[in-house]
Amino acid sequence: MPLVATGSIVEPAVRDRRGVGAFNVIQLEHAEAIVAGAERAGAPVILQISENAVRYHGALTPIGRAALAVARDASVPVALHLDHVTSTDLVREGVELGFGSVMFDASALDYEANVQATAAVVARCHAEGVWVEAELGEIGGKDGVHAAGARTDPGEAAAFVESTGVDALAVAVGSSHAMLTRDAVVDLDLIAGIARAVPVPLVLHGSSGVADDNLAAAVRHGMTKINIATHLNKAFTAAVRTCLREDDHLVDTRRYLGAGRTAVTDEVARLLGVLGSA
């Protein structure tokens, strides 16, 4: 099945009140595991590569091309997305490489500057047929920039979408990035209010900190794209630790990275069921 546009996965899910899993890729094993989990679940999926992951690899091209290859060989629809990008040069590089969407994050700027910067990126990306997500309302825990407990105002969100032309909007509703526990509680009434006010799909960042029942409820109330990274990294790392602990002499990286890959595959398949993605 060929690589698909992000909108072709997200927009039908909005109509059907299904969640779409958007999972972050750091190593090749993540991409392989995420697609394998989606194939097991029979659900479309989004592979995300963040600006932080690009910085880790030193460039987008190696990990980006690897993820593209995994996506193109999948038996379910897979889209490729750049996550939390602040650099317009990286946006351009991703578009040229073949990414179908980008989350441009100018949320550290004041409102008017955010609108201006985001609208400029939207204009360039739309000219290339690329879908753009943006962020309004700070989401806790991201590199110290975002204030915990922030909430997005529905009216301001609607005005932001109209002013920028974005295709999807990440909003602050009670989740927080990089949480190691799953005890964040999202504001379901606020989600419903934003969904009524905003004519584009809503995105939940910091979903690793949200328990299964609350994730499912968030989808029912109007969330569509559900971003998950830390939770999968926890599953991967726990499997690697177990593998190494059981064999002090193990040096074959395929053995312990393979265990991590299997753990992520299992958890992706399970989470896609929670989100009703199939």
Please supply descriptive tags for the structure shown above.
11 helices; eight-stranded parallel beta barrel; 278 residues; single chain; alpha/beta
Descriptive account of the structure:
The chain is of the alpha/beta class and 278 residues long. It contains eleven helices and eight strands. It has helices spanning 6-16, 28-41, 51-57, 60-72, 88-97, 111-127, 154-164, 188-197, 212-221, 230-246, 253-274, and strands at residues 20-24, 45-50, 78-85, 101-104, 131-136, 168-171, 202-204, 223-228. It has an eight-stranded parallel beta barrel, surrounded by eleven helices. It is globular and about 60 Å long. The model is unreliable at 140-147 (pLDDT under 50).
What would a concise description of this structure say?
The protein is of the alpha/beta class and 278 residues long.
